[in-house]
Amino acid sequence: MSCIGIAVCETPLSMGSQETLPLTFDAAASLLVGESIQSATASLMQLDNGTSYPSGLQGAVLIDGAALTQTVTALLPRKRYRLTIQYHVASNKIWAPYLDIECPD
Fold first, then answer.
1. What is the DSSP string of 47-87?
2. Which of 7, 8, 39, 77 is most buried, taking the most CB atoms under 10 A from its CB?
3. What letter does residue 36 receive in the DSSP assignment?
4. pTM across the whole model
């Protein structure tokens, strides 16, 4: 089994603590012809202290073809986060793209 984690953006996304944003990852480039996403889960980690922050996730990951959407909300001001969406394409093929988020206010 292999798991590949990649940053989806070189710079962090800036998001306000009172915002609620649906964030969509396009997984099309990681799929071979005939493959589809079987399942997906999201995690949100506070980078400042390395702890999980599940209260910032709203609902489950929505899968629409190759688009994976997770809604993020209620972040703490002046903290940094990492949203990771891990998805399975086959029993031995797992991807885990991530996005770093800064919350300045």
1. TTTTEE-GGGEEEEEEEETTEEEEEEE-PPTTEEEEEEEEE
2. 8
3. -
4. 0.90
